[in-house]
Design brief:
The structure holds 2 protein chains of 2 kinds. By secondary structure, chain A is an alpha/beta fold. In chain A, 34% of the residues lie in helices and 21% in strands. The longest helix of chain A is centred in the middle third of the chain and has 13 residues, at 103-115. Chain B is globular and about 45 Å long. The chains are: A alpha/beta, B alpha/beta.
Chain lengths: 300, 253
């Protein structure tokens, strides 16, 4: 049986040092692949082209670290904790080539990518300034045409087929069958890529997968690598495993407003730690993580 | 009998009364969620409440900080993806009411949730998320917002979500399906739209003066003769809000 289990540094080193086209599965403050993103910062993967439905702390970190050249997304936030100020500032200063969509149009572009089709029609985006700006930039990912079937106007969205997709999930087996508990907004994103890297809280046996096949939302043929990283989404939440770390997110929402503070943060917590385990020890280790463990009934 | 109520309670009750039984609504955190739950606990027990992240009909015990907060997903009926909620349910035309908020709303009910323009230049704030999708494809729109001169403006700085676009038939001409109606509920009054799809005052909240509304609205509005007063909440609605729906008074204070 093929074993796709790898180490985090090994998998991140598979990504070219410049110009990777990569999609992320995080959503605001839920299931962000933080460990993966931090390792990408340590290994300095530059000039990234990033795709995401709703961005979270994951992409804010990458943009703040100066590694992203272009971002296609539908906005994002740290929910009530704050904004993605590293992304916002990069857009305002013209340092990031941003292409803005709606949540549904991004998810449909990933869906088309996951189906292997070149484009998908939709009514959304019509009339919006997102569409106006995309057309002004001559973006080849959108075309407005009348449908040959009903004669109505639609936006034809180009499929996203990134080189890599990275998501953080609860479970996978060694073959790469992935179980996501709770809503699974990142499934189409995951399936759209040429190579899917999944960090998981726990690697489970195929016996476990075969007991709960209805919980598998990504079958193994999509998956290139499985990496076990407990607490790999910290400080964002993983449903049924742990809650978001309120204190850490509040702190991050403060420091990401200021470039120098952000750089201090990156130097201390990312460059100042050799891996994610050391990062977790630095922020307080088991004592702190115990405070956010999920209640099995509530899932948070 | 007159009862005491807060402005947020009045806003939640006004929104709840615009929802009918057996409808499907897409909501976000805060007052929209409170309004939908109030409707479900009163006249609309068969209401389906959808969160775009991929969650349907949860029974949250705590309010949470956003739709990505698992507190909001507790005891759901269905988990899915963005494609499952917006791509399927919304795009198929199954959403009756979409709740929206934002930085600015204009004369035609367009919403900006992306950026602000000032003397210092453009500041990017957030983006659409699913808001523009909901505005484009839900049958009726309910906009809940704070009444402020800088928020209710003639033209929004950026059209994130389309209301009636430039009024008249322009929304349909852009290729979007026409929506049945748009209602804006603020802390001072309720707005609807006239036959030209331009904003019009529907009712003024109890205790609010016409001058106050004119002063706080960045859109030139006409005050119709004998404009109505927004209907007050009942004691039963207020009790439900305070004891069952938002006992910690996070949103109804």
């Amino acid at each position: 049986m093929s074993n796709k289990v790898k180490s985090l540094s090994e998998v991140v080193s598979q990504i070219p040092d410049e110009g990777a086209v990569i999609a992320f599965g995080g959503f605001a403050i839920a299931r962000n692949p933080i460990a993966f993103v931090m390792e990408m910062i340590r290994q300095q993967k530059r000039k990234l082209r990033v795709y995401q439905i709703v961005a979270g702390m994951d992409t804010d970190l990458l943009v703040g670290a100066g590694l992203v050249e272009r971002l296609e997304y539908s906005g994002g936030s740290l929910d009530r904790f704050g904004r993605l100020e590293r992304i916002n500032e990069a857009i305002d200063k013209g340092k990031l080539d941003v292409r803005e969509y709606t949540g549904m149009s991004m998810s449909l572009r990933f869906l088309a990518g996951s189906m292997g089709i070149p484009f998908i029609p939709t009514k959304t985006l019509l009339g919006t300034d997102m569409l106006r700006v995309l057309v002004e930039k001559n973006d080849d990912a959108v075309r407005v045409e009348n449908s040959p079937f009903d004669g109505e106007r639609y936006v034809y969205l180009k499929a996203i087929k990134p080189d890599f997709a990275v998501i953080h999930a609860q479970y996978a087996d060694e073959k790469g069958n992935v179980i996501i508990e709770g809503p699974y907004w990142d499934v189409e994103t995951a399936k759209s890529a040429k190579k899917l890297f999944v960090t998981v809280e726990k690697i489970v046996s195929s016996e476990f997968i075969k007991r709960f096949p209805e919980k598998v939302v990504i079958p193994s043929m999509y998956t290139s690598a499985v990496i076990e990283v407990p607490f790999g989404a910290f400080p964002t939440s993983v449903y049924k495993f742990y809650d978001y770390d309120q204190k850490f997110l509040m702190q991050y929402a403060e420091i990401n407003k200021n470039k120098d503070e952000f750089e201090k943060f990156i130097n201390e917590f990312v460059f100042g730690t050799k891996d994610f385990v050391e990062f977790l020890e630095k922020i307080g280790g088991i004592r702190r993580l115990n405070e956010i463990l999920a209640d099995p009934v509530y899932g948070y | 009998m007159t009862i005491n109520f807060t402005t947020n309670e009045l806003m939640a009750v006004t929104a709840a009364r615009l929802i009918k039984d057996n409808e499907n609504v897409v909501v976000g955190l805060g007052l929209p969620q409170i309004a939908a739950l109030l409707a479900k606990n009163t006249h609309a027990p068969n209401l389906n409440i959808i969160y775009e992240i991929g969650v349907i009909n949860p029974e949250a015990e705590e309010m949470g900080v956003g739709i990505a907060d698992p507190r909001l997903w507790y005891k759901s009926e269905y988990f899915t993806s963005f494609v499952g909620t917006l791509g399927n349910v919304l795009q198929k035309g199954l959403v009756d009411v979409g709740f929206l908020g934002g930085l600015q709303t204009d004369r035609f009910g367009n919403i900006n949730s992306t950026l602000v323009r000032s003397e210092k230049g453009i500041r990017h704030i957030n983006g659409s998320g699913g808001a523009a999708d909901i505005a484009s494809l839900a049958r009726r729109l309910l906009i809940i917002m704070k009444h402020d001169k800088r928020k209710l403006v003639e033209n929004v700085d950026y059209i994130t979500s389309v209301g009636y676009l430039r009024g008249g038939n322009s929304r349909k001409e852009s290729g979007l399906p026409m929506c049945e109606n748009i209602t804006i509920i603020t802390n001072l009054c309720v707005f609807g739209f006239d036959e030209n799809k331009s904003i019009k005052l529907l009712s003024i909240h109890p205790g609010v003066s016409v001058e106050e509304i004119i002063e706080n609205t960045g859109i030139k509005i006409e005050i119709p003769e004998g404009v109505k007063t927004t209907e007050e909440p009942t004691e039963a609605e207020i009790n439900l809000l305070r004891t069952t729906i938002d006992p910690l008074k996070l949103y109804i204070k």
